[in-house]
Structure formats: structure tokens, C-alpha cells
Amino acid sequence: MTTGDPQSKTRDGISLFSPVDFAGMHKAGALAAQILDEICDLVEPGQTTGVLNEAIEAKVNAAGATSATIGYRGYQHASCISVNHVVCHGIPSDKKLKDGDILNIDVTVIVDGWYGDTSRMYVAGQLSRKAERLIQVTHDSLFKGIEAVKPGNTFGDIGYAIQSYVEAQRMSVVRDFCGHGLGRVFHSPPNVLHFGRPGTGAVLEEGMFFTIEPMVNLGRPETKVLADDWTAVTRDKSLSAQFEHSVGVTATGVDIFTLSPADRFHPTF
Ligand code: MF3
Ligand code: CO
Ligand code: CO
Predict the structure, then answer these.
(1) Please, which of 26, 28, 86, 217 could form a disulfide with 82 given CB 3.0 to 4.6 Å?
(2) Does any ligand 1 atom lie closer than 6 A to the CB of residue 80?
(3) Does 59 reside within a domain?
């Protein structure tokens, strides 16, 4: 067996990787996170999401890496950029950002065959109080989920940690999109739901690699996909936010592959 082949799979079809494989995920994750760090300074009113995407694509190429999203199921861009009531899979365009817009930028790179997938929130100009609260709660909900990652816990424990926190803040968790296993493929089992009941779902084991990427709405959780077949928006047009990390399960807890090298994961208000 060569390095990078999952050592085995659980009966739920979840790949189990060996300790040496964590290094490959760290390299890919760090590049994705570094690119998101570097993009911070370009986000301002008047900027277009198309220009942000071009800068991201140039950085992926300059690093000698590959964009996982270009060509994925017909998607043609190096990032998804989801503004205001766009929940996820926003397509970069020549539309200009306005003062007070909030946006999620999601980048996935392939380095030496390993996938690094992360997204975070950015603000153009002045942030409203309600958008600030939404971003804070969404960020913190991701870390509630991450805190539930350790061998013996279940995927339902992760979903419950996120959902119970978000709903206590009177916001809602999107049900229509979820996190996913990853490694040497982009999307693999399991579906990582951001809602659920404690003790349900597959049991976490050392060597599992997956994303946690909660989408949180200020209004109702329902979404719809626009005619472009990608852009997902809130049905009630309420603001939506998302943060995503790629993680691995260790013997004792969790290893986050997509930590921000410059400590810019959380937007500074
Ligand atoms: N990066 C997204 C995720 O978190 C997937 C984007 S697929 C694309 O899983 F085709 F829309 F780019
Ligand atoms: Co993902
Ligand atoms: Co992503």
C-alpha cells in the first residue's frame, strides 16, 4: 500500500487515513488558508468578486497547486464568493461590492494530491450590527462543532453542538448543504450535517478527514438554487454566513488543517 491510500474504510464507507497522511492535508490546508489571508486586503466597496476570484486563481497557480473547483461538475472558477443573502456557491462576477456587504469566500486547492477546503467571512466597508452578530455566531458555531470532534463521539454530536448553539441565538442552520469527507478526493462520505441529535450517526475514529462548514441564516433556514444551477440563496432573502475548516480526527481529539497562518480567520470588526 502506498502513502495516501486510505488504510481502511468503516462500514459507513468513511476512509481512515494513517498518521503520515496528516502532513499532506496540512500542506494543502495551509495553502488554502494562506490564500484566504492574502485576499483580505482586496475586499472593499467597489471591488468586484470577479477580480477577487482572479487574484485567488493566480495565487493557486503561483504556488504550483491546482484549483479543485475549476472543472468540478462544470463549475468554472477558483472560488465561490457568496454575498449577503447568498448561502453558498456564489459565482464570481463583475458586480461591485457595496459598503456594508458581507461575503463568504470558499477556496479548495489540491497539493500533492491532497485537498484543502476552507472558507470564511469578509466585510466590505462598514458592518451593520446584525451582520456582525450573524458572523460572530456562525464563526463560534463552527468551533462548537470542532470541539465535539474526538474518537468515540458521533457525527450527530457535531451537528447537535452547532444547531443548539445557533438556535439559542435565535438564528437558523441551513439543512440543504453539509460538510463532507475529503482527502485525496473532494467530496466523500460522510455527509457532515450541521444539525442533529447527540449520539446518532457514525462514530468518529482516528484517521477520519472531513470538513465542518455551517451556514447560518438570520431568518428561516430554507434555501433555493437560482437558474444558474449553482447560486444558493435564502428563500426569505435574509442574510447568511458560513465558515469552513478541514479537520482530521486524532487519537485524542482534532487537528485543524486549514488554520490561518496570519491569524486572519475571523474578520476584525
Ligand atoms: N468548496 C465547496 C465545499 O465546501 C464546494 C464548492 S464546489 C463548486 O464543499 F463547484 F461550487 F466550486
Ligand atoms: Co467543503
Ligand atoms: Co469549501
Answers:
(1) 86
(2) yes
(3) yes
